[in-house]
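Example record used in the benchmark description.
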Amino acid sequence: MFKKLKNFFYFSVALYFRFFASIRLKLWKPRIIVITGSSGKTTLLHLIESQLGDRAKYSHEANSSFGIPFDILSLHRKSLLLYEWPVLFFLAPVGIFSKLPRQKLYIVEADCDRPYEGKFLSEFLKPEVTLWTNVSRTHSMNFEKEVEKGKFKTVDKAIAYEFGYYGQETKSLVIVGDNSVNLESQLSRVKCKLENILSNNNKIDYSVSANGSIFVINNKKYTFKYLLPKKTSTLILMCSSLMKYLNEKFDDKFTNFKLAPSRSSVFKGIKNTTLVDSSYNANLDSMTEVVEMFSEIEAKEKWVVIADMIEQGSQEEEEHRKLASLISKHNFQNIILMGPRVSEYTEPILLNKNTNVVSFVNPKDVLDYLLSSIKGGEVILFKGARFLEGVIEHLLKNKEDVNKLARREKVWQIRRKKWGL
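Model output (structure tokens):
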């Protein structure tokens, strides 16, 4: 019942905060750069931040119809619990008069979790530049009613159309990093200059190891100490294109780049294990990128812990069956599945291929299995939803690394505790 009420009043309440944030934007008058797309947004934001540093303000951990106005008004949610809301309502008008940022560039990560969000945010932000990474099935269940109403033939088209608002409202330049049919179908709505990175026939070589990632793009070498999937090469090119537009010097070493939490972060684990934490979230595209990246890392024992892809709606069986096909392509020594969806749809297909696989619904059971099964020296990938960060927390060798995991807010601590973590 609460969830239905939340969805019903979502934009009505968000409009309250957007109203005051729009006043502050008029006072501030920054040049607005929007980063949008189904995946890769946060990594691209961090790539850009490594270039511009403190010459720009960034919407860290704020990409929604609430989060972005909160960021503009300098409102911060610490616990994510309900008791914070009365304070936020009171402070929103006050936020107009707080000290304006000195930066005149605002780099905003903007999502499309539901119908109308792209329109709601793009008409509010009216970006000078939009960087559109891609389109894939994220939060699909929220778009199914659009198909049922006959507005779109597929969920994919509905999602692409909503993202298209950002391109439609952009004033100077849209940089695109995807050539999918669904994304390209929306480009006719762009009225400004359009650049598709993939149309330049770039020559790309890629390698990854436990020590980091190497990209060779048009004979130029980019080295990172982080594990980054091959498609990051597109984000590098998008970042370079933006720097050229802004007349900013491009640091091809990405000296100040830092990876956001739980996007393939690497930690030392118990019994000399190596933990690869990509637990922030997942859809099939991001699963594919990370699993294929992990498959290229050399190690004697490679395990994967794969959890559900949530909010897939009527597409969830199809997407989780595709996930089984993806995993079965690679020779992982142990496959641990967590969640009702992977247990129902993914496990049977893997078992038919005589794969070494076990599944659990409860994250505490996954933790108990790992604690009893790890022999030592394994390299373990964690990817998916459903509290994987809580499992990783108990496998860390250095307990201070807990603060480097995702979802540290009080509300997530409470939820993990309920699951026995």
